[in-house]
Predict the 3D structure of the following.
Amino acid sequence: MVCVVTGGAGFIGSHLVDALVAQGESVVVIDSLFAGSRDHLAGHLAAGTVHLLPCDLLSDGWQQEMEGEERIWHLAADPDVRKSSVSPESQIRNNIMATFRVLEAMRDGSASEILFTSTSTVYGDARILPTSEAYAPLEPISVYGASKLACEALIASYCHTYGMRAWVYRFANIIGSRSGHGVIHDFIGKLRNNPRRIEILGDGTQSKSYLLVDECIDAMLFAAARANDRYNVFNIGSEDWVNVTTIAEIVCEEMGLHNVTYHYTGGSRGWAGDVPKMQLAIDRIKQLGWSPKRGSAESVHEAVRAMI
């Protein structure tokens, strides 16, 4: 089987490619390499199990890769929640418009299945925690969350209008090796620049669910193999949470740093659009038989070790 993965040279995308190749599948990766890296795929490229098409989804020349393929893994996106409040156009173009172009290419090329990576930020400041897939109203508070919710709506409409099938994954905070953004990446960078002091955005009490990328990939593949509705939506995350100050403490511990001074910028949000409290209910995917092996704190420890 040949799989097409958009964004397959990125953080989560490259781990997905690893898993697909391990299953014996050949993979075509479409990636602009703006945030992704050819190095993430180097072994597969050398072995000939992966073909990389360095192309932006907003340009042309990649659509023929959809022809004759049944399943498209669509991970390409601008994932920067914080930056979306400053430069919202990037999220509109690289998330919403890029998804529209993928759906159109699928329709023209007769592809019938799309697997899409969404986000917990579609729930906004949810009043019910843990938050299930049935929660309403969906009221994102960041442009990033809004762009992903718009993509979900587009995908749902194409499924019902053109007979496609979709699996939509709403992620908690996914962490691990190859990650190029997020709180752990930021903390490691700050402490390498100054091992005596670290700036923590907000008041440090922001508490969220964290999951290692290998478990995330396992959950995606597990649900794709077992859920068969026309439009399938799954939360993917751990069953607990950890706060930002604790993450800073874990990073300091794993880097062997002591007596580090914490400086808080203050406020309940780290930035405009930040959701201070997030934990997903994962009952739906657990009913299929999948559950995470690690909690948030253990996942953070392992992610820090991998990233340093």
User: Anything to note?
Assistant: The chain has a mean pLDDT of 96. The first strand starts at residue 2 and ends at 6. The domain at 2-174+210-236 is CATH 3.40.50.720 (Rossmann fold). DSSP finds nine helices and 14 strands in the chain.
